[in-house]
Amino acid sequence: MSRVLSGYIHRATLGLRGGERREVAAELRTHLLDRVRQLEAEGFEREEAEHLAVKAMGNVKVTNSELLGHFFTTPLGWGVLAALVLGGGGFLLWRTVPLPLLGQLR
């Protein structure tokens, strides 16, 4: 398989675990190779057929996000997660660590 196809499959399945990643990669590989064969039958050279098949699949980041199926695949999602973690940690610190009262400092 070419670097174009294997690269797309690798990037599209990032974040999936073990057996699920192998299964999805096999499905993507089958779909892409079927499309390449169709394009070759229409008269396209192999390299161009692979490029067109990958292009037809769409943006690899979108495909990856759809395969992962959760919010934390976007920069905004990671920002929200960081804000929640830091905010929750700050709240717990504020609730559990006794701070001196301002009147007692003099």
Structure description:
- The mean pLDDT is 83.
- This protein has 5 helices and no strands.
- By secondary structure, the chain is mainly α.
Instruction: Decide which structural class fits the backbone.
Output: mainly alpha
Beta fraction? under 5%
Discrete helix count: 5
H and E order: HHHHH
Extract low-pLDDT stretches.
Answer: none
Measured between the Cα atoms of the first and last residue, the distance is: 75 Å
* Count of individual beta strands: 0
Alpha carbon gyration radius: 24 Å
Mean pLDDT: 83
Shape: rod-shaped
Estimated helix fraction: over 70%
Largest sheet: none
SSE diagram, text form:
Blueprint lengths: L2 H10 L5 H24 L4 H12 L2 H9 L6 H22 L10
Helix pairs in contact: 1-2, 2-3
Question: Key features?
Answer:
single chain, 106 residues, mainly alpha, 5 helices, 73% helix, rod-shaped
